[in-house]
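Input:
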Amino acid sequence: MFAVPAGSLVFAFFATGVVLYATGHDAISSYRQIVDAAFLNSGALGQTLTQATPLAFTGLAAAAAFRMRLFNIGAEGQLFMGAITADAAGLYLGGAGWPTPLVIFAMVVAGCAGGAAWALIPGALRAFFKTNEIITSLMLNYVAAYVLTYIVFNTESYWRQTKGFNASVFPTSKTIPSAAFWPSWHIFPLGSGIAILAALVLWFLYTRTRFGFEAQVLGDSPRAARYAGMRTRRKILAVMGISGAVAGLGGASQVGDFSHLLDADPNGLQKQYYGYTGIVVAALARYNPVAVVVVAFLIGALQNAGNTLQGADFPSGLVGVMQGIILFSALGGELLVRYRVRVGRALPATEAA
Amino acid sequence: MNNSLLVVLLASGVAYGTPLLYAALGELLAERSGVLNLGVEGMMLVGAVMGFWTVQRLHADTAVSLAAAIGVAAIAGMAMAAIHAFLVITLRASQIVSGLALTIFAGAAGLSSYLGNDLNLADNPARHAFNAVFPASMQNWPVVGPILFGQNVLVYASWACVVAVSLYLSRTRPGLNVRAVGEAPASADAMGINVTAYRYAHTLAGGAFAGVAGATFTLAITPQWVSGITGGAGWIAIALVIFAFWRPGLCLVGAYFFGALQALSPQLQARGIHLGPTELWANSLPYVMTVLVLVFVSASGARRRLGAPASLGLPYVREER
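Output:
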């Protein structure tokens, strides 16, 4: 079942090696550096988890929608929105002196709500007007990015930090009170745990419940589902809502686990492309929630290595090239699965002929 | 008069709209043949970086350098489109995922950035750039001066492209064949039209247009290389094709409209006009408008009449005919 994704990874490493050699780099040493920077160096594993956690959320968001053949390309914007709402919850409740577990719970709920609300815009347009959700969810990513920038840069907004030296030099958002910081177990952040939990919940939802079954039937054969009396609109709204909520959780985890503030720096959160990379993760995991977590860890390791190594002998952009090649080979490999191509086993008929 | 808001917006709308127009024309050709290519942003960026590289490294006079750069940009965009074409036409992979993969592969965090770094292109302005062709006296004519005569060759060439694509699709045999392939590939195949060849050719043509669109950024609008210089223009171009109901002439109108919207926010600020959160709504407007147009197109139930190719996004499998 996972021969194609695994094969794609191997092929991608070869193909990227060719790119590296062609541009005059030493591929072997580059790869050794990747492994060191992703796993072996001190602190590398923690950094990998930092990269992998948001990818797990956005990957799960894409996978959740795709089970109904909905393409939610908007995880990027939904993550921003979840970060904004979770940050507000953390600032307000943490400042009001609520106990940490309750604040964290409120941030989780707020993040889910923010992401889900943003995803329900393309969801509702799809449900009621049959508007293609690919382009609409994608367009809303840009709007969400402008909203994120706006509430930190351009107003006397609730999120903006107005006191202190740094705030007078460059606009930043307030840091959430330490009561709203999410705990971690050694290097393992709470968000990673929530991502794994979310994956298990989604797996259960889609394989063991009537809801998941109906969503899949609606995706595979909308007409059959309608004749069976399934409610298309309601299901589209529910699935898009779930997908957005998971992406929003990723935003909440960004604020609670890692940045502890709203990162509106144009070279910060918005340059990580977590939402788009999440689609790569989901596609490689063949939209299986549990596999998404594993793939997110591997792609997160690659991203982390790319961020750490960026420099003269490790040009930035290499990671994107590798991800693209991985995805291309996974897509190409699908054809082999479709036709059940078996390597190394001659058919008896060929002998007779 | 030439400094009035409307004239400035229209003039910059034409300038900023030109890359959108090239990219949208290319995407339109691909989509009319039934291939949806979401990798426009990636193809544009690779075209942008390779066009810029040509200008920096080729030692020739301005005209030759720029012509070569446009050629190289078109070839680079075509090479990117070839990956997509092979995956979705020959291997019949999902057009959506493949297009996204192309954007990731070639885009701001991928190949274009890799090439820009590896070829050391950042931090140097372009050695040659496209400048306005008409003399300054003509550019100062009221109203029409800045809008029509203050532009570079790429703008005028794009008008020729609009006419050419429009005539091609409506008045020539191959153009009509493309539309047949996009609407009903099985019937087209039965008529003896080579569906695969047509789809390949038009996806590649789309890539060439996208490459030129990217080069418009690095050689005309802001003559330098910055990673991710297109800033989402490729996605707007995809939306623009829908916005224009798959018609080349309307692409031109839409491109200049979106181009003008991009200039709106800085212009309002420069003039000290504050209409609420200007940056927020003025920057978001192109994207929100696209969503609204999409809703209109789909809700009016007139998708077919408005021109969406019937088999857009569907692979053609001859044995399932």
